[in-house]
Amino acid sequence: MYLIILGPPGAGKGTQSVLIAQKLGIKHLSTGEILRQAVTESTTLGLKAKEVMDSGNLVSDDIMIGIIKEAISDESAKKGFILDGFPRTIQQAEELDKIMDSLGYSSARVINITLDDNELIRRMLGRGRKDDTAETIKNRLNVYKEQTAPVKEHYSKKSAVFDIYGIGSINEINDRILEVLK
Ligand code: AMP
Predict the structure, then answer these.
(1) CB under 8 Å to 114, separation ≥6 — which residues?
(2) Domain at 122, CATH number
(3) Which domain range does residue 16 map to?
């Protein structure tokens, strides 16, 4: 099983991915978490990624594709996985398609969480993450609209994409997602 969760920053992708991974017995792969871990450990990757993340811009496709290849090949992902925060550009989506084709997976099932900007900003300001300052949030929403929103269209052409309304309790939203995945 291979799932992708899409949606703007602050939509609750991380929270929902963790729950889905637990319930379906698959691996949660968050590229944001992988990068934050690298920053904490001051690895070469972390040192490169830090400034880009703090500004709300995207880490380069080359770096991200390398990260995702490694994560997908790990033994812990063998039973299936949910991708959270990847792909974020059309190039990442195209590369991911190639990787998954070569590994013999059938096409992804894609969950797209929808939410309006005011609610996203409210949630991100309440989250207290280092890259959740007012200015960075504004930039991340712009980056999302310009570079990541087209990823949904990429999948609409070839996969099942389920739009999930992101307002409600964590459990309500989780039930909505599990219902469409049945
Ligand atoms: P997230 O936790 O998914 O919001 O990711 C936090 C930050 O990590 C983003 O604002 C980007 O700077 C970076 N990042 C995470 N995933 C990707 C990706 N697939 N491509 C580029 N940058 C990413």
Answers:
(1) 7, 11, 163, 164, 165, 166
(2) 3.40.50.300
(3) 2-181
